[in-house]
Design brief:
Order of helices and strands: EHEHEHEEEHEHEHEEHHHH
Number of domains: 2
Oligomer: single chain
CATH topology of the largest domain: D-Maltodextrin-Binding Protein, domain 2
CATH class of the largest domain: Alpha Beta
CATH superfamily of the largest domain: Periplasmic binding protein-like II
Strand order of the largest sheet: 2-1-3-10-4
Radius of gyration: 19 Å
Low-confidence stretches: none
Length: 248
């Protein structure tokens, strides 16, 4: 059995959940025990301390560890989520959004994990906008940002699904920008220690093999059916919202 750390609970990780639900790993002889990490920082720290064998999450976390310690044993493998899943939402419709329009607005960024804001800053610079010129609102948990938007505390928020779809469905927000339009990047992968990978190369290969049919299912099967399978993982998310989040 391997202990696989779930970085955090989000519909963005649907391929991992589906691989487990449909037994794509166990059918290949791999016994996987998924444990929810108490915090994204602990995901990497837990691997280093031996509290988990493998995790999934952003390769950026691995790179940050290597930046602090060039001898860090963490290694990423397998590209699973290949598009940036974050979304900008605002109170008013803005179908022709441009990054320069963020100047003068109170922007809430996703601070819980490092990749969203780092890649967002690159987008801004490419669009000729200095990130330091923007008014960044005080950090708050991402799930509170739709309410902050409704209450007028902020003007724009960077959020994951299902928060975007839920806010839109409630009539409290509009989609301004999908960062997925940036194109393919290595957004989410598996990662482990170099020692573990060298000792268990087949385990790592089997994890990737089990993800492949899950990715194909999400690409080709109705979102309504996928949402039904994963609904118990998101008991507080209305089924139409979950379906829309998966379809998006």
């Amino acid at each position: 059995m391997i202990t696989l750390y779930e970085n955090l609970r989000t519909i963005v990780y649907a391929p991992f959940y589906l691989a487990d639900k449909r037994q794509f790993w166990s059918d290949r002889g791999l016994d996987v025990n998924i444990r929810l990490s108490p915090d994204p920082v602990e995901t990497a720290e837990g691997l280093l301390a031996g509290r988990a064998d493998i995790s999934w999450g952003g390769p950026m976390r691995v790179m940050l560890h290597h930046e602090r310690d060039p001898k860090c044993p963490l290694v990423a493998f397998g590209q699973i989520v290949a598009r940036d899943p974050f979304i900008l939402i605002g109170r008013e419709p803005n179908i022709n959004f441009q990054f320069k329009e963020l100047q003068g607005k109170r922007l809430a960024i996703a601070y819980e994990v490092p990749t969203p804001w780092m890649t967002f800053q690159d987008d801004l610079k490419r669009a000729g906008v200095d990130p330091d010129s923007l008014e960044i609102a005080p950090n708050a948990p991402m799930h509170t940002n739709p309410a902050r938007l409704t209450n007028g505390e902020i003007d724009v928020a960077q959020v994951l699904e299902p928060y975007a779809s839920a806010a839109v469905a409630a009539g409290h927000a509009h989609i301004w920008h999908r960062f997925a339009s940036r194109g393919d990047i290595g957004y989410t992968s598996f990662y482990t220690t170099r020692q573990y990978m060298e000792k268990h190369p087949q385990t790592c290969a089997t994890l990737i093999a089990g993800i492949e049919p899950a990715l194909l299912a999400i690409a080709n099967e109705p979102a309504l059916e996928i949402a039904s399978e994963l609904a118990e993982l998101f008991p507080d998310v209305p089924h139409p919202v979950l379906t829309n989040a998966i379809a998006g």
